[in-house]
Amino acid sequence: MFATLQPTAGDPLLALMTAFKADSRSDKIDLGVGVYKDEEGHTPILASVKTAEAYLLETQDTKTYIGPAGAPALGKAIEQLLFPTIYTTSQQLLADNRVATAQTPGGTGALRVGADFIHRALPKAKIWVSNPTWANHYNIFESAGLEVGDYRYYDAANQSLDFAGMLASLQTVPAGDVVLLHACCHNPTGLDLNAEQWHQVGALLQERGIMPFIDSAYLGFAEGLEEDAKGINILAEYCADMLIACSCSKNFGLYNERIGALTVVAANKRDAQAAFSQISYCIRGNYSMPPNHGAAIVSTIINSSELRQQWQQELAAMRSRILSMRQQFTQKLAECGAQRDFGFIAEQRGMFSFSGLNPAQVTQLQTDDAIYIVGSGRINVAGMTSSNLDRLCQAIVRVLD
Ligand code: LMR
Q1: Which residue owns the Cα nearest ligand 1 atom 4?
Q2: Could you tell me the distance, in angstroms and rounded to a whole number, from the CA of residue 207 to the centre of ligand 1?
Q3: How does pLDDT run across 13-36, given as a tens digit for each residue?
């Protein structure tokens, strides 16, 4: 039956992960997949997570199903993170019951359920993603039957945000379509909108009748938990309907627990409930119900003032280590004699930067120096440590020559 079937090309990022694992060179450096690493090059389990798990081990008394939309406590915890009290207008959304959240297996699960929901509820809608975007966005949306277009975002010549290009592209998106935006720490460029730019995008989407679908995979990794939610909250001032896919992989370090959530914001309570029931229907027809463990950890942390404070400190420590590595990397490249100005890397936010390295240079770094970088030149800054920085910068300067 499968005799004519050809293997797929596979996801290059997953292939890079496999190649890194298989590499026996002891000084190998992983700047590929978006996973946080500490100064020892290790992806730690947060202490707040460990405490929550110990508590759950003691107190959990059932493993029964939690229903397609998951645990209501998780939904409420996620809504607190997306709509912090400093954004007063958003508080009204919550008070008016215009927001509903379904738990999903990771942020990818949220994106896929959101895509299934769009396909079902808005069958004519096309989805528009930034150019470039996280490569898997295409796979997720096309697998759900959506047509995907792109809008301008990155000015490669100046290694900066092409905001004028972005606005010009969005002006051509038809009413009723959906635009995917990254809440913060844009993957792969590390270039985010400022508050004024979010206002302009919000006004444009509102005027043209376009719905935002916000991918929030790195909340807390750019400026801070509340600051990183500003785009979401500014858009909520303009757009009555929104979808938000949220991941707890990075900010809680819960990668393999697969915990995320899909939040819908609607014009009123009736619409929110209708959308939520359609979302639950999509989930039931897909994986039926989400797993519980990651959700129980996240809601335990958010609902305990002590654990929440500890988690926020741990998140702040991850954020500042990445920021510091950005600065050290820029400085070290200059010290190693780089002819190019890499100052833009210190200005970008989150785990990723577009280094400007081309595919041949990326391959050379992997072959000669066991340095693993995505073919597009995207580097995961969180994979740098004080001890691998010298070797890394020397190798980069060598391939740039
Ligand atoms: C990444 O872009 O590296 C992460 O989001 C991990 C993944 O699944 O691709």
Answers
A1: 34
A2: 33
A3: 999 999 999 999 999 999 999 999
